[in-house]
Amino acid sequence: MSHSNFRIAKSAMGPATVSMAALLTCMIAAPAMAQDRAGVAAPQGAQQSANDSDIVVTGSRIKASGYTAPTPTTVIDSGAIEANAQPNIFTTIAQLPSLQGSSGTAVNTFSTSSGQQGLSSFSLRGVGAIRTLTLLDGQRVVGANVTGVPDISLFPQLLVQRVDVVNGGASASYGSDAVGGVVNFITDTRFKGFKGNVQGGISRYSDNEQFLVQLAAGTSFLDDRAHLVVSGEYADEKGVGGGDFGIGLAGGRDWFKQTSLIDRGAVNDGSPRFVLRDYAQAYNYTKYGLITSGPLQGTAFDQNGNPFQFNYGSGGVPARDGTSNVRNCFPGFCLGGDLSGNVDAGRTLQSAIKRVNSYARLGYDFADNDELYFTFNFGQVKTHNTPVGGMNKPGLTIQCANPFVPASIKTACATAGITSFGYGTSNAALGNTRVDTDRRQYRGVIGAKGAFNLLGTEWSYDNYFEHGVNFTAIDVSNILLTNRFNDAINATTLNGSIVCASATARANGCQPLNIFGGNPSAGALSYIMPENGPFQRTRQTQDVVSVNFSGSPVELWAGPLSIAFGAEYRHEFYKVRADAYGMGSNFAPNTADYPFDPTLLPGGNNWYAGNYKSGGGAYGVKEAFFEADLPIINSDALGKANINGAVRVTDYSTSGTIWAWKVGGTWNLPVDGFRLRGVTSKDVRAPNLSELFAAPVTTTLPNFFDPFTGRNVLAIQNSIGNANLRPETARNTTAGIAFSGASWLPGFSASFDYYKIKIKDVISSLGAGDIVNLCFQNVRPETCSAFNLNNQQGPNFINVQAFNLASIDTSGFDIEASYQWQRPLGLPGSLTLRGLATHVSKFVTDSGLIGTIPVDSAGANLGNTPDWKFLAIQSYENDKFSLMVQERWFSDGVLGHQYVVCQPGSCPASTNNHPTIDQNFMPGAFYVDIGGTYNITPQVTAYFKVDNLLDRDPAKSPYFVNPNLYDVIGRMYRAGVRFKF
Length: 981
Fold this sequence. Notes:
11 helices, membrane, globular, Plug_dom, transport, single chain, disordered N terminus, transmembrane beta strand
């Protein structure tokens, strides 16, 4: 079906029809199909703009009729986005098999301090979001986190015309970060009319309620020379909160089995060192308190503080020998028994998120082929999550004389002749911590683009200036101050009243805390968990000036030589401010909200979690690029071929000059429908603001071993950024064959592409011991400047920072195919079948540290890169309705390739690099989604979508669950109405 015929059929169906036929091109590699501009297939199902030819398609800066880029590019059009019916466009794009390790609202929910809760960012090829460049209309977007990655939730989504995904390095064309590839959102800049979308959703567990309203309008005036487009949206996803303590998840989800990978500690007894077990019960704390050592070990307390004998499970018997060991159990864990104190069930499964987006674009055609434009968008995203249930506190010591100790326990202490005992509690009585994140983004762009004639040659240009600001506020509530907690539980009796034993603590407001049971006083809670909890306030700015030109100045034997060239300047800045208790009074003034307290550590790190720091930094980037496409063959006998190359020189204010390049080509074979393509490139990623200028964290190492002297020394550990970091460099290679447009097989397209990425000088953090030992062994001399353990001018110190030490080596291949059948079996309409698959052959990470070996995580389903991942869609549509079935699948895998599987009596000695384990399997998953539309009128369409139709539960995991691969929500129902006038 030709592009022009498609538009005729679409017009006949009415503007409100959801185009299932449009899904023919969705997610099919662009060069595998007929090209009509800048190396990408015309996005069927998307409304065509008058100046579509001016849109730069990701993967190349060249604009030339008939040009085909050698880098595989997947196109997702507006019809496919609508058919997937997600409240956030991020989810639709993240389903592509080549996107591995992207973060969304179900990821980072266990986090308190990362600042990435609810952040929607893409990761291509599993190499991380920091190595995937995300653009809006070919332009950079200010980061929503100090790592520099943007938040897709802040993008204007209703006006997105298509999304181009480049599956390969593109640094030579687009600059730093395009190591795994590029994701480019293209908006409809000439939309006319009024359209909207209203959607609601809920899970089968009656939670994760969702509501979405999107509106957009466009018009032209001043004799059709001025064009105004505006949009706005509001989205509210309630998320899925944590359950209660124990193993009961939110909404009655019953798949959680408290699976744990238990380290037996034995390395050469003939049995596996690690064992994977369900219903693992930690025996050093319980929900409302447990005596964990001494003669009274095994005595637990209920909510009212009444003692009872704890049920350890697996026949566990407390050793009562002065240790916390329990006989008949694994080290640290029993199986079964009383699981009511487990904290994992309390964590959020999916962060709640509220989004508000507004966008406006005003363009003016000051000549027939030239436009001056201005865009502004404001977006705000609020999220919240609970990292885990309670605030687990094992390893406490309680005095028998503590007035809160029940009388029967005091008597037992006297009988046993002890004055104190070990104690552990998950602190269920204190409630759960909550993390609230608020991101606000302001972004403005002013630019000019168009075409001009110079010396008889048509040239196009696209120049712009962008200024973006992102404000991030993180607030943690209901969290304890560790020293205040320790003082509050150490109670005594004074003048007939129960008070804190420390006079200093009493003078600063200490209120005693009854740690036995679940009834703390309001005064104690207010003291250990003040209303003003940890906070962080971050301001990030990005300024970009970019000029780009493209043209075909010379006609050669096989066609025109096309070139593109340009330059860019970028400035990135951030500043972060944190609270005094987390940062430390040494670095922050005394305030009414955070008054000075001598019981707290002046260096900070006083909170149970969320000890944010203050800091800041900035860097500048100057770069220039040149790209050329040289046609070399154009004949009926040999086909049509071209060579494409690009080079970019970049100067970073922090690390100097580096070059990126690419060379590749395409060959349309003389065999009808076949095309070969390939490209190899050097790509770069510069260190981001967080790596260069991390906010400092200071801790004390009282007995640090100095290998130079063989003695233990007192040292200060400073966790800081490293301004001497170099850019990472990558060698990217792709090669493949594509088939489409054959006269003998109309409607069928397919492609196969091999890829290989080798990244060197990967930026990774090191521990204090690694830094010192790498210098001592003269393996990494650059670490020698990071410490001084014989400092005559002040305290000994070790600056813990990132270095360019690690490497990543990954390879695999993509397979994509699509077939469209007009009037199947004589029925009106069309049937479309398509599938995409990615196979990861290897994903080897080498830490660069002494004593470690490279680890291959391909097929390790605890991570992001399963062996196989595919997406398949079958859809039928006619003038009145459409139906779609979608399958998502990834293959079975392992916990990790480093493990040696063996059974008791047959295990070799377990080593750090090759530990033994009793089972090493994680199943894959198969999900089915269905959806459909019904055209109420030519302008109004109703639709529905059901995700995870079979309500497939996630696989058990020793780390709760892996939301990067598995669906943790269950079956989701969505329905809505779209309209367009």
